Amino acid sequence: MESFLHFLNQNAGALTVIFTAIVTLSTVVYALLTGFLVHETRKMRHVQTEPRVAIIYRTRDEWIALVDIVVKNVGLGPAYEVKFDISSLSGGAAADSLIDELKERNFLRMGLRYLSPRQEICSFFTNFSENLEAKMSAQILINASYKNSTGKKYSNEYLIDLSELKGMERIGEPPLYKIAKNIEAIKNDISKFASGFQRLKADIYTSDDREKEETDRKAYLEQIRQNQQKVE
User: With left for phi above 0 and alpha for psi between -120 and 50, is residue 154 left, alpha or beta?
Assistant: First the structure.
C-alpha cells in the first residue's frame, strides 16, 4: 500500500494530465453526440411538416382502358399554392391531345391553393383504347411546384408514359366493383317491384295447408304403428 501511494505522489503530475485528457475527450464526444441528436431532431421536425405532391395515373376498376390522373400530397405537411406546368417530351400531336385533356381539369390548369396531408384529387384522364398506338408513343412531363407552411418552395417532376400499360391484362372483376354492381342490380329489381311494373312470384302457405300437413303426418304415424303390430 505504501509503495502504491509513493508511486502516486511521484507521478501526480502525469496522472493529472492523463485524467484531464480523458475528461476532455469525453466532453468532445458528448458534444458531438449532442450535436448529432440536435441535427436528427431538426430533420425529424422538418419531415413532419414537409409536403410532397405526387402525380400518378392509374386504371379504373370497371375497365382497364380507362385511365385516371391522380394528384396526392403524400407528405406529412400541407402544401400551399400548388401549380402545375405540363409539357410534352415526345409523341407530337398525340401528346398535345393528352395535354389538352389534362388541362380540361381546372385543378391542373389553375392549380390548387391548398392540399392537406394525404389529400387526394382524382379525375378521369383518357380512354387508352382510343388512338392506342399514338398515345403509347406520347410522353408528358408534369412539374409540380408548391410551398410549405413557412414559405419554403418545392418542385418535383413526374413523367406520364402510357406505354407502361402495354401488355397489361386483368383477369376477372375486382371484388369491390363486383359487389357494387350486384348491389345495383338488387336495387333495380326492388325498384321494379315497388313501382308495380313487375310482380313478385311467391308460394303462399295457408292454415289449410298446415292442417292437411298435420293430418297426413298423423296418418303416416298410424300406418307405421299398425305395421309394427302386425309384425309382433
Answer: beta
